Amino acid sequence: MRRFLRPGLVALCASFVLVGCPDKQPAGQADSGVAEAPQDVPPAAPPPASFTVRYQLTDAGTDLIPLTAEERPTIEPTSSLELHSSIGLRNYRIRLFDEAERAMISDDSAEETPEAVIYRIALPNPLKSGHKYTLVVDPQTGTSFTDTLGREVQELRLEFQVAGEKEKDKPAPAPKNEKKKRR
Protein backbone atom coordinates (compact mmCIF):
# COMPACT_ATOMS: atom_id res chain seq x y z
CA MET A 1 0.00 0.00 0.00
CA ARG A 2 2.90 2.26 0.68
CA ARG A 3 3.96 1.74 -2.84
CA PHE A 4 0.73 3.14 -4.25
CA LEU A 5 0.60 6.00 -1.79
CA ARG A 6 3.95 7.47 -2.71
CA PRO A 7 3.32 7.93 -6.42
CA GLY A 8 -0.14 9.39 -5.64
CA LEU A 9 1.33 11.76 -3.09
CA VAL A 10 4.02 12.86 -5.53
CA ALA A 11 1.41 13.46 -8.24
CA LEU A 12 -0.74 15.45 -5.83
CA CYS A 13 2.19 17.63 -4.72
CA ALA A 14 3.24 18.16 -8.32
CA SER A 15 -0.22 19.39 -9.25
CA PHE A 16 -0.12 21.97 -6.42
CA VAL A 17 3.28 23.17 -7.57
CA LEU A 18 2.11 23.52 -11.16
CA VAL A 19 -1.01 25.43 -10.17
CA GLY A 20 1.01 27.83 -8.02
CA CYS A 21 3.64 28.62 -10.67
CA PRO A 22 2.35 30.91 -13.40
CA ASP A 23 5.17 30.06 -15.82
CA LYS A 24 4.36 26.33 -15.53
CA GLN A 25 0.62 26.69 -16.22
CA PRO A 26 -0.83 25.67 -19.52
CA ALA A 27 -1.65 28.59 -21.81
CA GLY A 28 -5.08 30.14 -21.36
CA GLN A 29 -5.47 29.25 -17.68
CA ALA A 30 -5.48 32.03 -15.11
CA ASP A 31 -3.89 31.71 -11.71
CA SER A 32 -6.85 31.87 -9.37
CA GLY A 33 -4.70 32.01 -6.25
CA VAL A 34 -3.01 35.37 -6.92
CA ALA A 35 -5.00 38.59 -7.24
CA GLU A 36 -3.51 41.20 -9.55
CA ALA A 37 -3.33 44.77 -8.27
CA PRO A 38 -5.18 47.27 -10.47
CA GLN A 39 -2.92 49.51 -12.49
CA ASP A 40 -3.00 53.09 -11.20
CA VAL A 41 -3.17 55.25 -14.30
CA PRO A 42 -3.01 58.95 -13.50
CA PRO A 43 -5.79 60.91 -15.18
CA ALA A 44 -4.63 62.89 -18.15
CA ALA A 45 -4.33 66.61 -17.42
CA PRO A 46 -6.65 68.76 -19.50
CA PRO A 47 -5.00 70.71 -22.30
CA PRO A 48 -3.98 74.34 -21.71
CA ALA A 49 -6.68 77.01 -21.77
CA SER A 50 -7.96 77.93 -25.19
CA PHE A 51 -10.44 80.61 -26.19
CA THR A 52 -13.26 81.00 -28.67
CA VAL A 53 -14.79 84.37 -29.47
CA ARG A 54 -18.22 84.64 -30.99
CA TYR A 55 -20.23 87.65 -32.06
CA GLN A 56 -23.91 88.21 -32.61
CA LEU A 57 -25.17 89.68 -35.84
CA THR A 58 -27.32 92.68 -35.02
CA ASP A 59 -30.02 91.87 -37.57
CA ALA A 60 -29.98 88.07 -37.41
CA GLY A 61 -31.38 87.31 -33.97
CA THR A 62 -29.22 85.23 -31.66
CA ASP A 63 -27.03 83.44 -34.19
CA LEU A 64 -23.47 83.55 -32.88
CA ILE A 65 -20.57 83.17 -35.28
CA PRO A 66 -17.15 81.98 -33.99
CA LEU A 67 -13.99 84.01 -34.53
CA THR A 68 -10.63 82.34 -34.83
CA ALA A 69 -7.28 83.84 -33.97
CA GLU A 70 -6.29 84.08 -37.61
CA GLU A 71 -4.65 87.29 -38.72
CA ARG A 72 -7.17 90.06 -38.11
CA PRO A 73 -10.51 88.49 -39.11
CA THR A 74 -13.28 90.69 -40.48
CA ILE A 75 -16.70 90.61 -38.82
CA GLU A 76 -20.04 92.25 -39.44
CA PRO A 77 -21.09 95.21 -37.26
CA THR A 78 -22.24 93.91 -33.87
CA SER A 79 -22.96 95.08 -30.36
CA SER A 80 -22.58 91.65 -28.72
CA LEU A 81 -19.41 89.60 -28.22
CA GLU A 82 -18.86 86.39 -26.22
CA LEU A 83 -15.58 84.89 -25.10
CA HIS A 84 -15.54 81.19 -24.07
CA SER A 85 -12.58 79.61 -22.29
CA SER A 86 -11.95 75.86 -22.32
CA ILE A 87 -11.22 75.86 -18.55
CA GLY A 88 -11.98 78.11 -15.59
CA LEU A 89 -9.76 81.15 -15.02
CA ARG A 90 -8.44 83.04 -11.98
CA ASN A 91 -7.22 86.66 -11.68
CA TYR A 92 -8.24 87.61 -15.23
CA ARG A 93 -9.89 90.59 -16.89
CA ILE A 94 -11.36 90.95 -20.36
CA ARG A 95 -11.51 94.25 -22.20
CA LEU A 96 -12.35 95.49 -25.67
CA PHE A 97 -10.24 98.31 -27.12
CA ASP A 98 -10.83 100.54 -30.14
CA GLU A 99 -8.08 101.30 -32.64
CA ALA A 100 -6.85 104.23 -30.52
CA GLU A 101 -6.31 101.70 -27.64
CA ARG A 102 -9.17 103.19 -25.60
CA ALA A 103 -11.27 100.75 -23.58
CA MET A 104 -14.80 100.50 -24.95
CA ILE A 105 -17.77 101.26 -22.71
CA SER A 106 -19.82 98.08 -22.30
CA ASP A 107 -22.11 96.15 -20.00
CA ASP A 108 -20.25 92.92 -19.25
CA SER A 109 -21.32 89.72 -17.52
CA ALA A 110 -19.48 86.49 -16.74
CA GLU A 111 -20.54 82.91 -16.03
CA GLU A 112 -17.69 81.22 -14.19
CA THR A 113 -17.28 77.54 -13.35
CA PRO A 114 -14.15 75.42 -12.76
CA GLU A 115 -14.71 73.98 -16.25
CA ALA A 116 -15.14 77.23 -18.25
CA VAL A 117 -15.75 80.96 -18.39
CA ILE A 118 -18.35 82.55 -20.64
CA TYR A 119 -17.82 86.31 -20.78
CA ARG A 120 -20.39 88.49 -22.56
CA ILE A 121 -19.73 92.03 -23.73
CA ALA A 122 -22.81 94.10 -24.56
CA LEU A 123 -22.00 97.40 -26.26
CA PRO A 124 -24.46 100.34 -26.21
CA ASN A 125 -23.87 100.87 -29.97
CA PRO A 126 -22.69 98.51 -32.71
CA LEU A 127 -19.00 98.52 -33.56
CA LYS A 128 -18.17 101.01 -36.33
CA SER A 129 -17.75 99.76 -39.89
CA GLY A 130 -14.17 99.70 -41.15
CA HIS A 131 -12.66 100.20 -37.69
CA LYS A 132 -10.20 97.88 -35.95
CA TYR A 133 -10.71 96.52 -32.43
CA THR A 134 -8.72 94.35 -30.01
CA LEU A 135 -10.16 91.93 -27.46
CA VAL A 136 -7.68 91.42 -24.59
CA VAL A 137 -7.61 88.79 -21.84
CA ASP A 138 -4.91 89.63 -19.31
CA PRO A 139 -4.22 89.57 -15.53
CA GLN A 140 -6.49 91.58 -13.24
CA THR A 141 -3.61 92.13 -10.81
CA GLY A 142 0.07 91.29 -11.00
CA THR A 143 1.84 89.94 -14.05
CA SER A 144 0.02 86.67 -14.71
CA PHE A 145 -3.29 84.86 -14.50
CA THR A 146 -3.96 81.15 -14.16
CA ASP A 147 -6.50 78.48 -14.94
CA THR A 148 -8.32 76.63 -12.15
CA LEU A 149 -5.52 74.02 -12.08
CA GLY A 150 -2.98 76.73 -11.21
CA ARG A 151 -1.25 76.75 -14.61
CA GLU A 152 -0.23 80.13 -16.05
CA VAL A 153 -2.24 81.26 -19.07
CA GLN A 154 -0.80 83.36 -21.89
CA GLU A 155 -2.34 86.78 -22.49
CA LEU A 156 -4.76 86.78 -25.43
CA ARG A 157 -4.94 89.66 -27.90
CA LEU A 158 -7.43 89.09 -30.69
CA GLU A 159 -7.40 91.85 -33.28
CA PHE A 160 -10.28 92.10 -35.72
CA GLN A 161 -11.84 94.57 -38.11
CA VAL A 162 -15.47 95.41 -38.77
CA ALA A 163 -16.54 94.99 -42.42
CA GLY A 164 -17.53 97.93 -44.56
CA GLU A 165 -16.33 101.41 -45.39
CA LYS A 166 -14.66 103.20 -42.54
CA GLU A 167 -17.15 105.39 -40.76
CA LYS A 168 -15.82 108.81 -40.01
CA ASP A 169 -16.33 110.28 -36.61
CA LYS A 170 -18.48 113.36 -36.42
CA PRO A 171 -16.62 116.25 -37.98
CA ALA A 172 -15.22 118.78 -35.59
CA PRO A 173 -17.23 121.98 -35.45
CA ALA A 174 -15.92 124.69 -37.72
CA PRO A 175 -13.85 127.26 -35.91
CA LYS A 176 -15.71 130.44 -35.15
CA ASN A 177 -14.63 133.38 -37.17
CA GLU A 178 -13.88 135.89 -34.50
CA LYS A 179 -13.34 139.34 -35.75
CA LYS A 180 -11.82 141.78 -33.44
CA LYS A 181 -13.92 144.83 -33.07
CA ARG A 182 -12.13 148.14 -33.12
CA ARG A 183 -13.41 150.92 -31.01
Automatic annotation (TrEMBL):
Residues 1-19 form the signal peptide. Keywords: Signal. It comes from the Bacteria. Residues 161-171 have a biased composition (Basic and acidic residues). Coiled coil: none annotated. Residues 27-47, 161-183 are annotated as: Disordered. Transmembrane segments: none annotated. This is Lipoprotein.
